[in-house]
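Input record, target 12 of the design panel.
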């Protein structure tokens, strides 16, 4: 698998409980742009409307800006390709306000662009501080050991 983009902030802001894989519906020039590594997943989230899952706030700049119409929106909503059972299962879990569906990374799998989605619970400020302290302590232990 070739990784195209990663949402590094997601693991810090959310406690990831489960992951799943989803395809993404893109236009032709967007596919070229994503394969060139120009996908920005920071600040993105997934909403379920009706029986469809939508990726919101993902920024994909045009591959060739001069050849794209003026009406192109790089932050438009993009439909995710999931099975009906998966969407029903996720919508049931997302009714609880504490859970969110966040894209963690984008990668190529057999020539297709896939997203790794994480079902997570948002961390509180105190939890984030504890996480930073524990990472710093582990870093110090590794430095002392080597």
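The sequence produced for target 12 reads:
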């Amino acid at each position: 698998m070739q990784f195209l983009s990663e949402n590094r902030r997601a693991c810090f802001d959310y406690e990831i409980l489960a992951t799943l894989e989803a395809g993404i519906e893109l236009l032709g020039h967007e596919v070229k742009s994503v394969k060139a590594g120009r996908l920005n997943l920071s600040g993105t989230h997934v909403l379920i409307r009706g029986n469809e899952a939508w990726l919101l706030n993902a920024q994909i700049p045009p591959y060739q800006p001069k050849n794209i119409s003026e009406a192109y929106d790089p932050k438009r909503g993009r439909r995710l390709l999931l099975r009906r059972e998966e969407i029903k299962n996720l919508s049931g879990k997302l009714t609880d306000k504490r859970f969110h569906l966040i894209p963690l990374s984008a990668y190529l799998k057999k020539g297709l662009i896939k997203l790794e989605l994480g079902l997570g619970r948002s961390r509180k400020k105190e939890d984030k501080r504890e996480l930073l302290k524990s990472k710093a302590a582990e870093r110090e232990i590794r430095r002392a050991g080597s």
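The longest helix spans residues 125-145.
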